[in-house]
Write a structure and sequence with these properties.
Number of domains: 1
Structural class: alpha+beta
Helix content: 25-40%
Largest sheet: 3 strands, antiparallel
Number of helices: 2
Distance between the termini: 12 Å
Strand content: 15-25%
Length: 67
């Protein structure tokens, strides 16, 4: 499955960059919503190739996603 989306955002670019790159906050937000988040040891923490293994309930099933 490939999901895409586009939205125009009325905010300064430096604010958006800082917000989107605040990985710790994104992880905490996901955990608060019941998502299991794991940082694979074979992936870098930031930059190209960074990622997460995620398990979450979606439409009645537990989904496993590599992001």
């Amino acid at each position: 499955m490939k999901l895409t989306g586009k939205t125009d955002i009325d905010a300064p670019i430096d604010f958006l960059y800082r917000t989107l790159n605040d990985h710790a906050t994104w992880e905490a937000e996901a955990r608060q919503r019941g998502v299991e988040v794991e940082r694979p040891a074979d992936m870098p923490l930031a930059g190209p190739g960074a990622g997460w293994r995620i398990r979450l309930p979606y439409r009645g099933k537990v989904r496993k996603i590599l992001v």
